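Slide 14.
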Amino acid sequence: MYETNFHKASTAQDAAALLAKSDDGKILAGGQTLIPTMKQRLAAPADLVDLSRAEALRGVTITKRKKMGIMKADGGETITIGAMTTHAEVAGDTELAKVCPVISGLAANIGDPAVRHRGTIGGSVANNDPAADYPAALMALRATIHTNSREIKAEDYFQGMFATALADNEIITAVSFQAPAVGGYGKFPNPASRYAMVGVFIAKSVDGDVCVAVTGAGDNGVYRHAGLEAALSADWSTTAIEAIEVSADGLMSDLHGTAAYRANLIKVMAKRALV
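Slide 15: predicted structure.
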């Protein structure tokens, strides 16, 4: 057995201070990735800093946009989700479901009930698993990742498989984004893990900009699909998707499916996201 010192932090600042004192400390959010990794002896952090008591990092806040001096609720609302908010809490937030149902639906289909009641949005984003759901959502929604020291645009934050722009001892505190005018997520889940073998998140902003992000398929993690974006910008229809040639170049091949199989799934999931 290896020794690990366990700490509980009540704020992100407390957690950062504890990490700064450790040679090899890790943040414990939901623990859905870190704990299994430690069980397999693939990680042996000297210190674990638990954020479960950091209440300021929980919850969903919705700010309606102003239009002609009137608060409107027809897309474009600013949504802020605390990093320690669980998937189950995101899925069950009734106000969020009214203004951004695609995020509620995405969260409701992550893993199983045990995972959804322990896993957090901050933990998922910090880990940036190449088959996770939230990275595709945040990329397509042009989200901002808030940390204890700065704000990072999603396009700059996700930097490859399990790689992010987070610096040492930097802690995610929240994510924020504008509710799309229209949004959809199509996911082909692994039947055992419920991770996305392919997931396609499509969002059209209130200004008409279209963004399409793909998870589960790319060799280098989540990415935007320029071809699908251009097609849907010109014609918001499944017919436009059908006309696009999705290349298998740069896609993963593993025991679950070949690159060519995933390329076909991207088109299928994009159609499902649009319906």
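Speaker note: Confidence is low (pLDDT under 50) at residues 68-73.
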